[in-house]
Design goal:
Length: about 80
């Protein structure tokens, strides 16, 4: 094996080992920067999630209301 291909293999192994180290380092930096939300921020998040649930529930209900008559027409015609 020539030295250039040997160096190439060493570089690939180094990159393979280095990737998890960088990932863990960046992950720890992210976790250390995160803060616990205060009560006001927590309530705003809860309100946003609740409005999302309500909107998707209403959309699903409307789709179901439209789907039932169309389904009855198609099945009843057969």
């Amino acid at each position: 094996m020539s030295s250039t291909s040997n160096d190439s293999v060493k570089e690939q192994i180094q990159e393979f080992v280095e990737a998890p180290k960088v990932f863990i380092k960046e992950g720890l930096q992210f976790v250390n920067r995160c803060t616990k939300p205060d009560q006001r921020e927590f309530l705003r998040i809860c309100q946003a999630v609740g409005m999302g649930f309500a909107a998707l529930g209403a959309l699903g209900f409307i789709v179901k209301l439209i789907h039932i008559p169309i389904n009855n027409i198609l099945v009843g015609a057969a």
